[in-house]
Amino acid sequence: MGKHETFLSNGQKCSGYLTLPARKGAAVVVIQEWWGLVEHIEDVTDRLAAAGFLAIAPDLYHGEKATSPDAARKLRMEMDVERAGKEITAAGSYLFSRTECSSSTYGIVGFCLGGALAQFAATKDPRVAAAVSFYGGFKKVQPEWNSLAGSLLLIYGENDEGVPAAEGRKLVAELEAAGKDVTIVEYAGAGHAFFNDSRPEVYDQQASDDAWKRTLDFFTAHLR
């Protein structure tokens, strides 16, 4: 189980849910869905630590959480994307300051809103060696793709109408043409938020299990 810790971003205090591996591990930042830093995201962070990574999920809503789509939509639209990007970078720096950290680069994994922010943060910090974006989409987030230094894994559900896999395929073509290292995975029959096992109406265990294995393998391959 993890614990809530504070760290600084541009002199301002931030908080996040931190989990420690049994031994030293590579650093990974976990980015929330539009619901906020809820139990599901804390569980993902715990699972990363169990797999040997030092992980933190910054609280990008600063204490607020949503229990309905309308409330989540409001919090998402009120988000300051630039501030969120800086807080994600600060969370990575905080992990580097921990004695449990074994890497000089860090990874990012995010879901929906967090998937878009994972893409964004990966273009803001050259220390991000690997970013995993689960069905990431948010029009307020505009990554500066020319600045992408690390590797990118894009994960989609075939039946996701909100964040269509076709958008991911288009992005992959553009990034590959620019010489970037990007991989896309699409899961047949899966819809939006298929990884969220706290929502049985959308959860797809087969797709989720495979996507998790790919995520861990991706971080293992790229984080040094």
Provide a compact summary of the structure.
This protein has 224 residues and is of the alpha/beta class. It has helices at residues 39-50, 69-78, 81-97, 113-122, 165-177, 205-222, and strands at residues 3-9, 12-19, 25-31, 54-58, 101-111, 128-134, 151-157, 182-187.
CATH topology name: Rossmann fold
**Low-confidence runs of at least 5 consecutive residues:** none
CATH superfamily: Alpha/Beta hydrolase fold, catalytic domain
Summed up, the domain count is 1
- Give the mean pLDDT: 96
Question: What class do helices, strands and sheet pairing give?
Answer: alpha/beta
* Number of alpha- plus pi-helical segments: 6
Q: Name the strands of the widest sheet in spatial order.
A: 1-2-4-3-5-6-7-8
**Major pleated sheet:** 8 strands, mixed
- Report helical residue fraction: 25-40%
List how many beta strands DSSP finds.
Answer: 8
Relative strand content = 25-35%
Shape estimate: globular
Supply Rg: 16 Å
CATH architecture: 3-Layer(aba) Sandwich
Give the N-to-C terminal Cα separation.
Answer: 25 Å
SSE string: EEEHEHHEHEEHEH
Reading off the top of the CATH hierarchy, the class is best stated as: Alpha Beta
Structure description:
This protein is α/β, with parallel strands linked by helices. The chain has a single domain (3-149, 207-222), classed as Alpha/Beta hydrolase fold, catalytic domain (Rossmann fold). Helices cover 36% and strands 26% of the residues. It is built from 6 helices and 8 strands; from the N terminus they run βββαβααβαββαβα. It has an 8-stranded mixed β-sheet, with helices on both faces. The radius of gyration is 16 Å and the shape is globular. The two termini are 25 Å apart.
